[in-house]
Write a structure and sequence with these properties.
Layout lengths: L1 H13 L4 H10 L6 E7 L6 E5 L12 H12 L4 E8 L7 E2 L3 E5 L10 H10 L4 E2 L3 E4 L35 E6 L4 E4 L7 E4 L2 E3 L11 E5 L6 E5 L1 E3 L5 E5 L4 H15 L3 E2 L3 E3 L7 E10 H10 L3 H16 L5 H14 L24 H15 L1 H4 L3 E2 L19 E8 L2 E9 L5 E9 L3 H18 L23 H6 L5 H12 L4 E8 L5 H9 L4 E5 L3 E8 L2 H14 L5 E4 L1
Parallel strand pairs: 4-6, 5-7, 6-16, 7-17, 10-13, 11-14
Antiparallel strand pairs: 1-2, 1-22, 3-5, 3-18, 8-9, 8-15, 12-13, 19-20, 20-21, 21-22, 23-25, 23-26, 24-25
Helix pairs in contact: 2-11, 3-6, 3-7, 3-8, 6-7, 7-8
Amino acid sequence: MRSLFVYLILSLWLYALPQVINEEIRRSGISKKDISIYIKEAGNNGKVVASLNAYKSRTPASVIKVLTTYASVLKLGFDYRWPTKFYTTGTLQNGVLPGDLLIKGFGDPTLNAGDLEKIVSNIRAEGIREIRGDIVIDRSYFEVGDKDSSGFDENLYSAYNAMPDAMMFNERVVTVSVIPKENRVQKKHVDESYKVVDQLEHVNKPCKGKYSWPRVKIDKSEVIPTVFLQGKISKRCGKRNICQVITKPYKSFYYALKDRLIQEGISVNGGLKVRKIPKEARELFTHYSDPLEEIISETAKESNNLYARHLLLHLGAKLYGAPATMKKGRDAVKYILDSRGALGEGTLKIDNGSGLSRTSRMNAKLLAQMYDDAYDRYGSRWMETLSIAGVDGTIKRRFRNTVVKKRAWMKTGTLKRVKNIGGYVKNRAGKFYTVVIMINSSKAKYRGAKLQDEIMKWLAKSRVKPGRSSKEPSSSKTLQQKKPASEKLFRNVKTKVVSTVKHETQENTVKYYIQVGSFSAMPNKAYLSEIEALGLHYRVRHTDNYKVLIGVYSDEKSAREILKKVREHVNKGAFIVKL
């Protein structure tokens, strides 16, 4: 009993809060029991600077997104791209497809109207000029029900409440543009899955107050939902875009795709069917998303709930097979983090992976351990996916005119009675700290934010020089990974297999190509001539399909320079491959 008492006293002494933090807490007026703080030198071997209620379970809000994004990087890698696959049934004859055009969604949350140009270009490259069958959409990769909104709060139709779908499009948001000067209302994209009723009265009043924005009423009592625009609006107002979550993304995708096909001279005789892709369907091509690095950056910086939900579901399907479910996703995130040593002790309830939840729970120490693991493993490449103080994301304005600007990489989390922040702070001497401050209190919104700001300013102003444990993180161009346990085990094992692998690694030089397309049949000359016109060399590699590769390049830097050009002029989904 005496030894336990000594241990507790010693623990309190070791992790006592610095006087500056104690004073800031006193000024905030927030009870210490409502605050969790864990600050240490960045990296798994860093010394603890401050600790308060570090193991107390709290509502994390959106800071939990980093567990989802980090697990995605660990499992899939920064360069992973989400596929959307296109198939046909029937045999193409003289440009006429007697069967169906089929699309299988795998949950790419970024698929939007801007991708249609390249998708339709790929369809044309297959020689299709008329589709006599239906457009079939397979959304079976996710098993998530049919709700449009999460219903988390009263703002049912707001984008942050959007629910996931394997065939996502425009983040499930439809946009209606009101143009008062022209007395006109229009849908941004062709979409017959919802209706708009214009009941606006245009008045010659200043564009402010009740005359500055339309009232919006959503009626979903019928099969086709209706958007009513009501009230008085000033003729002097500029364009107003009404963005709402009211319909099914796969329906919006169908109407937008069909309209784009017709614009490009490809007729579609059939309608929309939603069902699984039959086994006899022939794959045409695969459309790829932007790299995962960009997707997780959007998820963290802008706190995109829909992206986080999709990441969680996708990991569930990757580990435990399709269809993806929320349980599979939660289990996948926990397993990935735990198996890599990135998951600390304590209760962890992930719920939907986005933080838009009152049931998700975790503690400050657990979050800090994940941050330390990411810091050691990926350095600044990971850090830059977070919001940068005074520069972008959710803390673009919060630290704009402070010493913290460009010295903090953070993820925030805010709900009613919840104000959390976690990430990294760099001081004036170049020392990095892992910082987690979680406040669950009725005073969290304003006083909690100010308390967090003052603690981060104090850290950023300090001139404590970095030691070995808080070294400068690796460059964003360098991917630092811990050596897996299997590699450590084999290091001293002398066998023929190991020596053969070593020899092959030394003899074979890695070559870099840019994959610009993947087709079931040899792409036509018109498609390939686009590449030739840019003065680029290409090759068509035939395995199970036809892959168009630009290159070869001896190093990744050279390939990346050309990749920008290829994405701009040929395919925005192009990516680098190693052969």
